[in-house]
Design goal:
alpha+beta, Trna Endonuclease, Chain: A, domain 1, Aspartate Aminotransferase, domain 1, 7-stranded mixed sheet, globular
Length: 292
């Protein structure tokens, strides 16, 4: 069926009483990948700092160990927002130096003056500028995010402190990742309960799916379905992390091991089924070691 051309009208969110900044934050939090920053998730929102205001959004790209400090403003860029964006980026990078940090400013109108100023900071502050175009198409609103400046080139450290980004339920995950990846989560849970001394259930967070037992969080294994790449990360910590890295790599499984002995397996649905017994062994030994 051929595509149908429809006209649109660009609107200003700043001049709209209903589609305000909070509404925009909600839309980004519903699906942060709309920003074009990759497979990111929300760690925090309206994060407060002593004597320094509040950071609009803190996003995390697990695959690249990168955090984005995001400031959102309606209308045109102004000096105060530029300063705040860099200030929040500096606070976060000092607090959490193990991550790569990138300052992001989103505005409806990114002026030429702003781009000139930001270009002067190239090499000193990693910056991404995103222009938001709000378009009315019939009775609907379309949000178009366009990167007009990308200076996010920093060193990547290999350690990580994770955060879940708030509790949700299965209904949050099902439409986002699809049945195939959610079935893997169920199968991993079955492996955990086969090996464990106590029953556990999936604990759904915005950023990943962990475990709990009798209401107590027990993230001995945690799962991160990635719908855009159609893979799932299965992570656990092991004293034999390097041994597992070797065994998994020999089996053709994508695996990453970090300094904190965290093993992260990355598989598609097909790869999970093909390597099911090896993954079962790794998970089983992890659970048994925790339960001893």
């Amino acid at each position: 069926m051929p595509l149908k051309y429809v006209t649109h009208e660009k609107i200003s969110l700043k001049q709209n009483s209903e589609l305000n900044e909070k509404w925009l934050h909600d839309r980004i939090c519903d699906d942060p990948t709309i920003l074009g920053l990759g497979d990111v998730r929300v760690i925090d929102r309206e994060r407060a700092y002593a004597n320094a205001g509040r950071l609009d959004l803190l996003l995390f790209d697990e695959d690249n160990n990168r955090r984005y400090e995001v400031e959102v403003m309606l209308g045109a860029t102004d000096p105060s927002h530029i300063i705040r964006t860099i200030e929040y980026w500096d606070i976060e990078r000092r607090r959490y130096p193990a991550y790569e940090h990138v300052a992001v400013l989103i505005a409806e109108d990114i002026t030429a003056r702003f781009l000139n100023v930001m270009s002067l900071l190239a090499g000193s502050v990693p910056l991404v500028a995103i222009q938001l175009n709000a378009l009315r198409v019939g009775e609907s609103i379309l949000l178009d995010f366009v990167q007009v400046l990308d200076q996010a080139d920093l060193r990547v450290d290999d350690t990580e402190e994770d955060a879940g980004g708030g509790e949700v339920d299965r209904a949050y995950w099902n439409p986002r990742v699809g049945a195939a990846l959610m079935q893997i989560c169920d199968q991993v849970l079955a492996m955990i309960n086969e090996a464990g001394k106590q029953p556990r259930e999936l604990n759904y967070l915005r950023g990943y799916i962990g475990l709990r037992s009798n209401g107590v969080v027990q993230n001995i294994v945690w799962l991160a379905p990635k719908p855009t790449k159609k893979v799932i990360h299965i992570s656990f910590r092991s004293d034999d992390a390097n041994t597992w890295k070797q065994r998994l790599e020999e089996a053709g499984v994508a695996v990453n091991v970090r300094r904190d002995r965290r093993v992260r397996i990355t598989v598609t649905s097909e790869e999970f089924q093909a390597q099911r017994e090896l993954i079962r062994e790794a998970i089983g030994l992890t659970v048994k070691a925790f339960d001893e």
